[in-house]
Amino acid sequence: MGLFDRIKRVVSANLNDLVNKAEDPEKMLEQAILEMQEDLVQLRQGVAQTIAAQKRTEKQYNDAQNEINKWQRNAQLALQKGDENLARQALERKKTYTETGTALKASLDQQSGQVETLKRNLIQLESKISEAKTKKEMLKARITTAKAQEQLQGMVRGMNTSSAMAAFERMEEKVLMQEARAQSAGELAGADLESQFAQLEAGSDVDDELAALKAQMTLGPASSANQPALPPQTPQQQSTQPKSNEVVDAELESLRKQLDQM
Predict the structure, then answer these.
(1) Contacts for 115 with CB less than 8 Å, ≥ 6 apart
(2) 143 CB-near residues (< 8 Å, 6+ apart)
(3) Per residue in 161-205, pLDDT tens?
(4) CA 12, CA 254: separation in Å to the nearest integer?
(5) Domain boundary at 109, 136, 160, which?
(6) Alpha helix segments (H runs only) across 159-234
(7) Which of 47, 48, 50 is nearest to 107 (CA)?
(8) Under 8 Å between Cβ of 72 and 123
(9) 79 in a domain, yes or no?
(10) Which CATH number covers residue 144?
């Protein structure tokens, strides 16, 4: 392969690449429709011109037929009058118009065929343009859908999905921690309330016991006189009674200190 052939191939490849990149499907469809409509206008003009020529040829043919008929009558009239020479001239003129009429008839038949062909082509082109317009709208819709999908895919590729999911997981963890703290606070509040009521109940028992002790201390010997006589103590019980009194006194003193601290 020569150098110039290689250069030609490289230039052609680059030009084709530029053309492919420059081709916008939607614009190309619009351009194709415009070109087809221009062809339709030209075809209509051609059909109109052919029909006009056909009409003109048809008129010329009819005029030739009228002249043929006229000179036929003139030839008959000349023979009736006995002028054979004049009749011959009339027939010669008739022959001329007959030849013209024959040529016009051939041209008229040809033009009629051309008009019919152009009319069929015109109908086909109009049908193709209508079909092309329908396809254009469908292709435009497909192009729009493809562009939207391409943009969506680009957005999806650009999104950091793992980072977003990690953020959701962190937020979920925070919500769970907050719910746990709220539940713990509720449980602690309930426990504090129960402990307060328990302290109130314990305090009332101590108060009742203290009141009973105070009442016993206030009554003193009088209360002991009214009490029933105890059985006589044995020597062993008498020896242990002072020690028992000391224990009671110590317990009473401890109760007083506890009451003072409350």
Answers:
(1) 47, 50, 51, 54
(2) 25, 26
(3) 566 667 777 888 888 888 787 777 766 665 566 666 666 665 556
(4) 115
(5) 160
(6) 161-226
(7) 50
(8) no
(9) yes
(10) 1.10.287
